[in-house]
Amino acid sequence: MKHFDAIIIGSGQAGTPLAKKLALAGKKTGIIEKRFVGGTCINDGCTPTKTMIASARVAHKARTAALLGVETGEVKVDLRKIKNRKDQIVESFRSSSQKGLEAAEGVELIFGEARFSGNKELTVATSNGQEEVLTADWIFINTGASTTIPELKGLKDIDYLTSTTILDLEQIPEHLIVIGGNYIGLELGQMFHRFGSKVTILEKSSRITGREDEDVSAEMTKILRDEGLKILTDISIDEMEKVNGKISVSLESGDKKEKILASHLLIAVGRTAQTASLNLAAAGVDTDEKGYIVVNEKLETNVKGIYALGDVKGGPAFTHIAYNDYIIVYGNLIENADYSTTGRPVPYCMFTDPQMARIGISESEAKEKGFDFIVAKIPMSSVARGIETGETLGFMKAVVDRKSKKILGACILSSEGGEIMSVLQMAMEGGITYDRIQEYVFAHPTYSESLNNLFMKIKD
């Protein structure tokens, strides 16, 4: 049995920096990883998908370059080369993270799968086939989440894809069905359509991006359909089966029944916390009905000294939130800070093209909460920078408090939407009111400059 001051299970975007900082603070720290250092973000999420999306965007811009007076000829996509480039970037990021942990004095990196075998006791099935028992004063669970596999008739007999396995394809699917019309499904669906696949998106709700305002969902639907993706909403899947080497999906929408044949099927209906193998009951750690670990605003579980960070605890499943979780627990435990998850901003960006970026509350949330608010909105077809670059799809939208003039939230559906949203997030953090932004001096011509015009839509 080996004792540590702190043990971290999982080397994601919370676990890795936490391990190094705890060691620098003089804590003997162990970090256990069952697969690859870097977690979902580096290995299966942000890094590989955004790398491949960049290739898809180039292909799309080349095909549509004639609109800007540039003739490119036939556009050919080599998915094998795209995958190789992605793999090289992932490996670079992963190896850098691993080397950082291995070089950190006071950190022991252990490859294996951990399970609780007692209160603050872990048994690790190591990669060399041995078992090791470890104890610690503090334990941080950073095991993340994995693809949710729905209960669908016939699915177990289909060689389906997940958001992880689809990134290893070397041949472009002839026809890709995507089950799920939210962030992961839309990013990957548009990406493969731009690579050359026919893409059909199936969403059980009445609209895609159901967490966003209706006008955002409607605009995104129009953009994707105009590009050539088929989007079916309000559907239920009866069954699926293999038919002559193809995948057949039988579905219903209202009183209409339909069968769709495709070459590939992607499951993108959500994520499930990776807690099943942890044997949390042995430590007495509580989970909710979906398997997510329950934590308080300091990220501590019901067991003193055991914390959960990142996607495994539920809530916003974003890399930047996981990283902020590390900031919170490190600050509170080592620097005697009083950090909390209460009221922290939750910015996010869906990397479709155009991007869909959000900060703060939406228009529908403002209504639900009873705010006295005003909505400012301009189409990107009225934004000078968008017109000049040929990026006129989408709109900018902000919700402001009528009395205080503070910005309550914004949704930027546009080229570089994430960057524009971040400007507004900084304004919100600094308490800058919309009337001041109306007359700000921004560099010309930039996308952010049109925040002037966005807020000019509000008349006092």
Which key terms come to mind for this protein?
NAD; single chain; Enolase-like, domain 1; flavin adenine dinucleotide binding; Pyr_nuc-diS_OxRdtase; Mercuric reductase; alpha/beta; 5-stranded antiparallel beta sheet; Pyr_nucl-diS_OxRdtase_dimer; 3 domains; 460 residues; 12 helices
Word description of this protein:
The protein is an alpha/beta fold and 460 residues long. The protein folds into three domains: 2-144 and 274-335, FAD/NAD(P)-binding domain (3-Layer(bba) Sandwich); 148-270, FAD/NAD(P)-binding domain (3-Layer(bba) Sandwich), CATH 3.50.50; 354-456, 2-Layer Sandwich (Enolase-like, domain 1). The protein has helices at residues 15-24, 39-43, 46-63, 79-103, 183-195, 214-227, 319-334, 363-368, 384-389, 417-429, 434-437, 451-456, and strands spanning 2-9, 29-33, 107-118, 121-126, 131-141, 145-147, 175-179, 198-203, 230-233, 236-243, 246-253, 256-262, 264-267, 271-273, 306-308, 348-350, 355-360, 373-379, 395-401, 407-414. The strands form five sheets. The protein has a five-stranded mixed barrel. Strands 16-17-20-19-18 form a five-stranded antiparallel sheet. The longest helix is centred in the first third of the chain and has 25 residues, at 79-103. The model has no long low-confidence stretch (mean pLDDT 96). It comes from Pedobacter hiemivivus. Belongs to the class-I pyridine nucleotide-disulfide oxidoreductase family.
